[in-house]
Structures are given as structure tokens and as C-alpha cells.
UniProtKB/TrEMBL annotation, chains A, B:
Protein name: Uncharacterized conserved protein, NAD-dependent epimerase/dehydratase family
UniProt-listed Gene3D superfamilies: NAD(P)-binding Rossmann-like Domain, P-loop containing nucleotide triphosphate hydrolases
Span of domain D-glutamate N-acetyltransferase-like C-terminal: 150-350
InterPro entries in the cross-refs: DgcN-like, DgcN-like_C, DgcN-like_N, P-loop_NTPase
Annotated organism of origin: Halopenitus persicus
Length: 360, 360
């Protein structure tokens, strides 16, 4: 998926609730020609980004419809737009009917459509027929490949050290932390790679098993498969975690990733100020030390892994000083170094991984 | 699936490794006309059963092939055999090629075929074509219904008290404990029901979601759906657990069932003498108190549930005295009453559920 020129659909959610869009813009190789958001159409991407993001994400126009985006970008094809990427994922992962006109327009313009939804574009009769007529591809990155199976408990055999990001909740920045840790490790010459487990990670990396969409019995097995595939090619694998181990809906996926990856160490990811489960507000989050105990004791019988560092998402914290205080609180809770890898860089985490894991 | 006359395929595995076959024979309403096991063909079911099973399971002939079974049972149809049930499930859940001749013979004789395998009969071209020709049904009980989704965290809202069986490993007797607890509770006049989560439970109860076969993101949701459906019709729901929370391959399913059912109490199931994960012998089982801590601390943020009783599978223990000593050890480990529900009855568990949950 390198070097494509894409439009990213993020209606009414850009940028704060458009996790996939923002992830691809930050870390993907694709060139973003336009964003579709009918609410902020007429503005530009940089009008909505915090400083740290604006420094790394290219600016692009925001359009109300795919046809408008096409006009702004100079038409379909190599100099304009190659593909439409669905950059938002509602709870449940369904396709919103209000996006259909844009998807039709993209197909009719000869552009591929790429999505990571639970409902597959290829199983949508209208889109499948239209795509065949226009000779374009519908790419469902959340459609697992055939041939997955149950884990054999073998991920611990690989040469690479394996670090797993784990979270206090969904949407606390596990994917972002994973990307930042690998980038910072590479900057110091460590041969590190991402093990992508979710749609955004897969869209960025161009490969990976969509762990939340596999048969539940194969959850750990689908992670193990990736570890075994990459584990002898690199020195450090950082596994993109999902959900949280106490999430009322998603803990199964979290647990399967933890045991399937058989990690050597864990990085606990948290969002500053988060007190209840996102979207399940009647469930309070446990205290940070409880998460450390839970993740470590749950991991221990399968793989001995300690929480060696923390990643705090402080995007909703106004100033650096307050953010630093919040990072210090997380450090107290986990009794290990922490940072906001976006705001302050991932150095502190990579330091901990080097001393506790790579040299350990 | 009531009142069917079935043959049960259990080649080379009856009875000790034929968990599904034995479960259906013990607890199902189906009448078993014959068992297929080419290794013990010519003997009878009662030749292989322990005393407690022989008292509750009807005797039947064991045949080498479906055609032999048909002859022994008096032909197909209401007075002979209505259906062939696949009563064994290899690791991975695939269909063994050596079973195909029996499945073909059953279809050609006009019998339905019922299976709980990961690979579906209905997706097997040969069987699907043959079944259509002969007007018989291929029933894949592990094929989840459409319309499952992510959990909403609502299982705690139902009127019924919910007890979840949890295990130290696979194949320790969680399904059996569930059936025995519900039967013993009903004997005392408690309006209790099973929430089946695996193929055997579903075959016995005639309904249920195959939790290990749903999309991993929907694991908890598929349990929650069943709790919400039955939770206002009964006073006690006993959820059939799966796997173990420290299983290298299956912990995701275990975790999803725990959080999706939002239990009021847990019953810890263990097999006497088990020291390593079944089929994954390099992984030692943690000590019993560690399981109690893990299950309770993992449950707490979603639903406050203590381990109130233990169920010990002592089928490999020769005499009652040794079995009682093993039960006492489990009681020490969990600091709560325990029993082998098959060998000694489930009374001690139902006592604990009554005092700790129903009257609690």
C-alpha cells in the first residue's frame, strides 16, 4: 500500500475521533491527497492538528464529498487520487449508510476502496458489482486469511525479543506508542519491527492479521503466526496491543494477543485523565498498580513479562508542565519510566527496553 | 434435537477421548442407537464405562462403520437411526478424512449429520451436494448465527444470578460440572438453566452460541446475548466455561466468557493430578490459589465474583478415598467447598451457590 495517493473518509470525526485516518497520516507511506469530512469541508488538515502532528503530517484539503476531493486533487489516477480509504471505525465496525455515495463515486472514478470495517466491502452486493464493472479493487484489510489455526505456544522460540503494548482501555494510544517505539528504536540502530494487529496498524504496515476479526479460538494463534514469521528477521518485535484486559467487550482479544505473543516485556499505555471505560462509562478503570499486577500475573504462566515502561497519551492535556506531572504519576503507578511518546518522544521507553530486555 | 435416534462417531477415541460423545450420552435427550469406533467394534458401550456412567447411560452396540451400525440398529428412520453425530473433536477442530465414508453412508441412508467442528459440513462440496440429493440436513452447531456483535456490558442487569464455571485447563470437566450443578439445583427446586458455550453443551441443550467460533471481537457479546435472552426467565444461570485463563491458545475465549457473562460467582474446575497444560506440556499449571487470585482479580473490574466452590474431575483416580483426599486438597487451595460432581454429586457446589449467591 506504499506510495498510493489516497483520499481518507472521516466524516464528522476528523481528527479527534478518526483514529485510523490520523494513524495512516502520521505513520503510513501513503500520500494523502484529501480528507472527506462534511462537517469541516473547506478547511485544511493543518487547521485541526496540534503542533507536533502538524510537523509530521502533510497538509491537505478537506472536502465534503469524494467528487469534491477529486476535483481538488486533480482527478483520479497517479497524479490525483488512486484510492479511497475509510478512515473511521464506529463501535461495532459497521458501514454507515451516509458513506455509500462517496464509495460509489470512488469506484465509478476508477479508484480502489480500502476499509478495515467488520462488514466487508466485498460482501456488499452493490459495491462488489460496481467494482467489477469498473475494474477496481475493494480491499478489506480486516478479512483474515485462510489457514489460521490455534496457537501452539511457540512464540517464545524466536530469536527476537518481543515487547507487547498493553492498555488500560481502548483508544489510549497503543498503536501510536507501538509505531513511536519502533521508530525511536530504529533511530538508535536497533533492528525493530511492528507486529500489527488492528486495521490501522495493518493499513500502515501493509501486512498483518486483523486479530479482532479472526475466529475467537484462533486469537492467540493469529498473533503467534506473525511472531514466528518475523521473529528471526529482527532483534526486537513490538506487538500492537488491543483493548484492555478488563474491557467488558474486548478483553478476549487483549488476552489472546498477550498469550499469543509470549512477550519478554510489556509497555502499559494509558490516557491522561481517563477514569472510566471509553463508551462503557459505568465501568470504572482500576488503579494503575492493579493493571500492572493483572497483566504480569496473567502473563506469567505463559511468558514471564514485566511492565518495563509506560506510554501516556496526553493529547487532551493543555500544557507540557501538566503533561509531565501526569507522566510522573504514571511512573509512580507502574514503578518504571514513562513518557508521552508523541509529545515528548519515545526515548524513555526505548531506554527501558534496551536495559531491561535487549541487554537483560 | 430431542428424541432423535442417533449414531455417534467416535473412532479410536471412545470413551476417554470422546468428550462430545460422552457428554451427549450422559446429558442429552437423544437416544443413542450405536457408537462408531473401529478400534472397539464388536464390544458394547457398557464394556467401557465406569460404574457411575453405566448407571445413567444406556447401553448400545459399537460398530466399525455407519453401515454396520445401521444394520445393528434396524435401518434408518424413526425405529432405527435418524442422524449421525460426530462425537469427537481433534485439536484444531478439523474433519478427519477417515470419517468421510461414514458421513457419506449416513447421508445416502437418508440420515442427517450433526457436527460441531470448526470446518463446516455445509461448506464441504461433496457432502453438501450429496445431502441436497438425498434431502437430508447437515447441521453445523459451531456455525454462529448472523447478527452477533460486541458486548454492551449489560449481562449484570438480568434478574437471575449468574455462576460461571472456570477452569485450570481445557478438558477438566467444566461442561460436565455445569450440567451436574444445574441438575442438582433443579432437584432442589431451584429454577436453573445452562448457558451453553461449546459444541457439546449446544448439542445437549439444543441451543447456544459456539463462543470459540465467533469473531474474536464478539466473544463477550455472544455470551452476553445468551444471558440477556435467558436471564429473566430463570433464577440461576450456570455458564459453561471454556479453556483456561492461562492457556497458551484458548485464554481469549475464557476471558471473553468471564467478562461477557458478568458472573456473581465462579466455580473453579480442575482435574486431579493435572500438572501441565493438556497438549502443551511445556507449560506448567500455576498453583490453585494463583488461579483463584487471577480469576477473581480479572473479573473484579467488570463483575464482582468470588470462587465459591470447586469441581474436581477424579475420573483417573482409582478409589473413592484417594478421590476424597484430592477434593480436600482442592478445598484447601480455593478456601471453599469442593466435590467431584460426577463421583460424589454436585450437592456441595449447589450448597455453596445457595448460601453465597442465591441468598447472598
Amino acid at each position: 500500500m506504499d506510495d498510493q495517493r489516497i483520499a481518507i473518509l472521516a466524516h464528522e470525526m476528523f481528527p479527534d475521533r478518526a483514529k485510523t485516518a490520523l494513524g495512516v497520516m502520521r505513520y503510513g507511506d501513503q500520500e494523502v491527497a484529501a480528507v472527506l469530512d462534511r462537517e469541516t469541508a473547506g478547511t485544511r488538515v493543518h487547521d485541526h492538528l496540534v503542533e507536533s502532528d502538524a510537523a509530521t503530517i502533510d497538509d491537505a484539503p478537506i472536502a465534503a464529498t469524494f467528487d469534491d476531493a477529486l476535483e481538488l486533487a486533480g482527478g483520479p489516477g497517479d497524479d490525483g487520487i488512486d484510492a479511497l480509504l475509510i478512515g473511521i471505525a464506529p463501535i461495532g465496525g459497521g458501514l454507515d449508510d451516509s458513506w455509500r455515495a462517496d464509495i460509489r463515486a470512488a469506484i465509478e472514478a476508477g479508484c480502489d476502496v480500502i476499509a478495515g470495517l467488520h462488514s466487508f466491502l466485498n460482501e456488499d452486493e452493490e459495491f462488489a458489482t460496481l467494482a467489477a464493472e469498473h475494474g477496481v479493487d475493494l480491499v478489506d484489510v480486516r478479512d483474515p486469511h485462510e489457514g489460521l489455526g490455534v496457537a501452539e505456544g511457540r512464540a517464545g522460540e524466536v530469536d527476537a525479543d518481543v515487547v507487547c503494548t498493553v492498555g488500560t482501555d481502548c483508544s489510549v494510544g497503543k498503536m501510536t506508542a507501538t509505531m513511536e517505539i519502533v521508530a525511536a528504536a530504529r533511530d538508535r540502530g536497533i533492528d525493530a519491527a511492528v507486529i500489527p494487529t488492528g486495521q490501522t496498524g495493518i493499513l500502515i504496515e501493509g501486512w498483518g492479521n486483523p486479530i479482532d476479526r479472526v475466529i475467537s479460538d484462533f486469537t492467540a494463534g493469529a498473533v503467534e503466526e506473525m511472531i514466528l514469521e518475523k521473529g528471526d528477521e529482527h532483534d526486537l518485535l513490538v506487538v500492537e496491543g488491543q483493548g484492555s484486559i478488563v474491557h467488558p467487550a474486548y478483553s478476549a482479544v487483549t488476552c489472546g494477543i498477550l498469550h499469543g505473543s509470549m512477550p519478554d516485556a510489556l509497555v502499559l499505555c494509558h490516557a491522561a485523565g481517563r477514569e472510566a471505560v471509553h463508551g462503557y462509562e459505568s465501568f470504572e478503570l482500576p488503579a494503575i498498580p492493579e493493571y500492572v499486577d493483572l497483566y504480569e500475573s496473567l502473563s506469567a504462566p505463559v511468558a514471564d513479562a514485566d511492565v518495563v515502561a509506560g506510554a501516556l497519551n496526553t493529547k487532551d492535556v493543555a500544557d507540557d508542565e501538566t503533561a509531565r506531572a501526569a507522566v510522573a504519576d504514571l511512573e509512580d503507578g507502574i514503578r518504571a519510566p514513562a513518557t508521552d511518546p508523541v509529545r515528548f518522544g519515545a526515548e524513555a521507553i526505548v531506554d527501558a527496553i534496551e536495559s531491561e530486555v535487549l541487554e537483560g
